[in-house]
Specification:
about 45 residues
Length: about 45
Amino acid sequence: MTHYEEQSEDEAVVEDEEAYNDNTQTIMDIPNELVSQVRELIAKHCH
């Protein structure tokens, strides 16, 4: 948490852009009411 509290706005933007452009991960917009179900599916897949 300290990492984000001490980060400048410019550093945060660069970090967000790097994460967005990472081809090894996917960013999804999930309705709040489905988050727990998606987490459960991911947990089942990872084990």
